[in-house]
Structure formats: structure tokens, C-alpha cells
Design brief:
The protein has helices spanning 21-34, 42-54, 56-70, 84-97, 136-149, 165-186, 195-206, and strands at 74-79, 103-106, 124-131, 154-160. It is an alpha/beta fold.
Length: 208
């Protein structure tokens, strides 16, 4: 016990890793700071927290709007490159929390292939996870893509807000997490339970 340990201890009240995002994210930032990969982030994080608190109602309202739109649909979530991990997280949370199929990709990558495949995806809804300060060329690609989709799919846009990229990323993460939770309630699913994953693990253990 007298030695320092390189470990992160999560509180027991976080039974699922996806619920411990704040602990995992800040620990990662602290580690990167210590190794000189990035500069000090404490002030930026504090500013972001205050910004998100001031936008709580707006985020909650937007999350419910997305959840209602996605109910009974298969969401195809597209973002800019900087938000690609968030779009993927959005998809995984929809799968775990709401028990709903989805797909995630980013622009411009999806413009090279998926944009050309509008058939065979019944009940698809396109969710554009955008950034209010995204690059002009990315915005142009989104606008042209919407013209291609409009006859085939319903498309919904949502914009992350914030003064810094960190604020906008955290805005998007809070938004998608809430949307997946609200969709779980609309689907009458327990967002905490992951029965299929438990069954898979149990079956694999029996094979050992």
C-alpha cells in the first residue's frame, strides 16, 4: 500500500463502463498532460462544465427530439472526422441502452461509398451529428449529401455548441448519451441490462 499504483479506481456506483465516462476521460487527459502530449486542461474542463450546465435544458430537449425521431428506425449516424469517435459511441450506446440497431461513419469517408447505396435500408433515418464550427468544406459535403438523401431518407441534424472543441465534443457526448437513454425508455427497455452480452459471455465460458 505504500507504493504508488498506476491505476484508476472507479466508484462502485458505476456498474457499466459507459456510465464512468467522466472518470475515464479526465484520467486520460491527466495522463497526456503528465507526459507532455497536451497542455494543461483543468481550466478548459472547468469552463466546459459550466457551459454544459448552462445548456442543460437545451441538451435534454434536443436529446428527447432525437430519441422520438429514432424510435422504430435504424439510425445511420454521420459526423465530421473530429466527431467520429463520438458518432461511434452514440451507436454503441443505442445498441446497449436502447437495444436498437444502428450504424456510424463520418464525412468525407462515407462520401466515397455509402452515399452511393440508398437501397436495402428500410426504416433508415439519417442523423447528422454536426459541429457549429465545422470546417466549410465539411459543411458543404453535408449540404450536398442532404440533397442526395432527401428523396430516400428522413434526415435530422443536430449541432454541438461551445466555444472550444472540447466544449463541443462534451456537448455532443452528453447529447448522444441522453438520447440513447430516452430511446431506451421509449422502447421500454432497461438501459442497464445487457442480456445478450451476458448470454454470450456465459456461453463462451462454458466452452473453456
Amino acid at each position: 500500500r505504500g507504493k504508488k499504483q498506476n491505476s484508476i479506481v472507479l466508484p462502485k456506483e458505476f456498474p457499466q463502463p459507459r456510465l464512468a465516462f467522466s472518470y475515464l476521460f479526465t484520467a486520460l487527459l491527466a495522463t497526456m498532460e503528465r507526459f507532455g502530449i497536451i497542455g494543461k486542461k483543468e481550466q478548459e474542463i472547468n469552463t466546459a462544465v459550466h457551459f454544459l450546465e448552462s445548456h442543460r435544458h437545451k441538451i435534454e430537449t434536443e436529446a428527447m427530439r432525437l430519441a422520438i425521431a429514432m424510435k422504430g428506425k435504424i439510425p445511420f449516424i454521420y459526423s465530421q472526422p473530429e466527431f467520429a469517435p463520438i458518432a461511434y459511441r452514440f451507436c454503441t450506446e443505442l445498441q446497449e441502452n436502447a437495444k436498437q440497431l444502428c450504424h456510424a461513419n463520418f464525412v468525407p469517408e462515407m462520401n466515397h461509398n455509402e452515399i452511393n447505396a440508398p437501397h436495402g435500408a428500410k426504416n433508415t433515418i439519417i442523423i447528422l451529428l454536426r459541429d457549429k464550427k465545422e470546417r466549410a468544406r465539411i459543411a458543404e459535403r453535408f449540404e450536398i449529401s442532404k440533397k442526395i438523401w432527401h428523396k430516400k431518407f428522413k434526415t435530422i441534424e443536430t449541432f454541438a455548441e461551445g466555444n472550444s472543441l472540447l466544449e463541443r465534443m462534451l456537448f455532443a457526448i452528453w447529447l448522444e448519451s441522453l438520447a440513447s437513454y430516452y430511446l431506451a425508455l421509449l422502447n421500454k427497455e432497461d438501459p442497464m441490462e445487457i442480456p445478450s452480452i451476458k448470454f454470450l459471455k456465459s456461453a463462451l465460458n462454458e466452452k473453456k
